[in-house]
Design brief:
Bound molecules: S-adenosylmethionine, iron/sulfur cluster
Number of strands: 12
Shape: globular
CATH topology: TIM Barrel
Number of helices: 11
Radius of gyration: 19 Å
CATH class: Alpha Beta
Number of domains: 1
CATH architecture: Alpha-Beta Barrel
Strand content: 15-25%
Structural class: alpha/beta
Largest sheet: 12 strands, mixed
Strand order of the largest sheet: 7-8-9-6-5-4-3-2-1-10-11-12
Helix content: 25-40%
Length: 317
């Protein structure tokens, strides 16, 4: 490993190799665990431009970043989304991914096929139209299902992210396991996190991964699949051939293996989802990155922090 790449290793030996870029805070859904009904979004003029994002990412790739994922808010709402993807596709990264609610995905798919962005994590919290509406406050269930199946048919690597909430969609756990097997699409079940609007309702709706496994264990057998040491999810092959994963952000946080840095829509690099502190990379030269990144990495907590004043959609989930 080069000297430069060693700069992205912290004192616990964690090497920063993943970058999550939040492109904006705005969204076209209003998921009840993520957004208030009437959020106030940052002005567009504050967004880092496509050129800034490509330049910043190129500099970070030089220092050891290997995987990049775009998120938000809803990343596909940016008019320059394809320009950003084209810029990032030219960089020597191992994996370029997108986390999206998929409302605007289908029209992008033909162009995306010719880019390196092939890893799509699509959020879907219900397989029932009415429950989808209850959770997202928008009647877009069929748009999302259509986008998922179209992307899969076109050969994209699709995974589903499903936030499970007690009393809201926990009864759908077995439905998702059946759906995963039928469509050959992995589904990852996420614990709802105690952040943003969820803080007020967390204890009412939190369901741990261990409880999810108990519920599913009554009907299915799981065999563990190998995952990388810095993977956020524990993955399993189910007895019906479904592929599922569990992300225990609250009950078993993955901080000790975390290899992730975050870039905010303004171009600020942050050490952790749960820290507001960061440094604006836009004005810095590549040489200056070598001064600021060790400071950022040294701030990275080794244990889960339980206060984040900012909501998830502003930082990038
Ligand atoms: N809008 C895109 C989407 O929904 O996929 C990308 C941004 S969204 C903030 C990224 C992920 O964060 C989604 O999978 C969403 O379900 C998850 N998320 C948001 N708020 C959450 C919370 N309170 N607990 C757990 N996951 C949450
Ligand atoms: Fe929008 Fe994603 Fe938050 Fe839902 S989870 S409101 S789709 S940003």
């Amino acid at each position: 490993m080069s000297m430069l790449k060693r700069r992205l290793v912290d004192k616990y030996g964690r090497r920063m190799r993943k970058l999550r870029i939040s492109l904006l805070d705005a969204c076209n859904l209003r998921c009840l665990y993520c957004m208030p009904e009437h959020p106030v979004f940052m002005p567009q003029k504050d967004w880092a431009s496509a050129a800034d994002l490509t330049r910043i990412t190129r500099n970070l790739v030089e220092l050891g970043i290997e995987e990049v994922r775009l998120t938000g808010g809803e990343p596909l709402l940016r008019k320059d989304f394809m320009e950003i993807v084209t810029g990032l596709s030219a960089l020597p990264i191992k994996k370029l991914g997108l986390t999206t609610n998929a409302l605007l995905l289908v029209p992008h798919l033909p162009l995306l096929r010719h880019t390196r962005l092939q890893f799509l994590n699509i959020s879907l919290d219900s397989l029932d139209r009415d429950n989808f509406f209850r959770i997202t406050r928008r009647d877009e269930f069929s748009t999302v299902i259509d986008a998922i199946l179209t992307a899969k048919a076109l050969g994209f690597r699709v995974k589903i992210n499903t936030v499970i909430m007690k009393g809201i969609n926990d009864h759908e756990l077995p439905d998702f396991v059946e759906w995963s097997a039928v469509h050959d699409i992995p589904v990852r079940f996420l614990e709802v996190m105690n952040i943003g609007v969820m803080k007020a309702r967390f204890h009412e709706h939190f369901l741990s991964v261990s409880d999810m496994m108990t519920i599913l264990g009554a009907e299915y057998r799981f065999s563990a699949l190998n995952s990388l040491p810095d993977s956020t999810s524990r993955n399993f092959l189910v007895s019906n051939n479904a592929k599922i994963g569990f992300i225990a952000s609250e009950s078993n946080p993955f901080c000790t293996g975390c290899s992730r840095l975050r870039l905010t829509p303004k171009g600020q690099i942050r050490p952790c989802l749960f820290m507001e502190a960061g440094i604006d990379l836009k004005p810095l030269t590549p040489e200056e990155y070598l001064d600021v990144l060790p400071t950022i990495i040294a701030m990275k907590p080794i244990k889960r922090i339980f206060h984040q004043p900012q909501p998830m959609y502003q930082i990038g989930g």
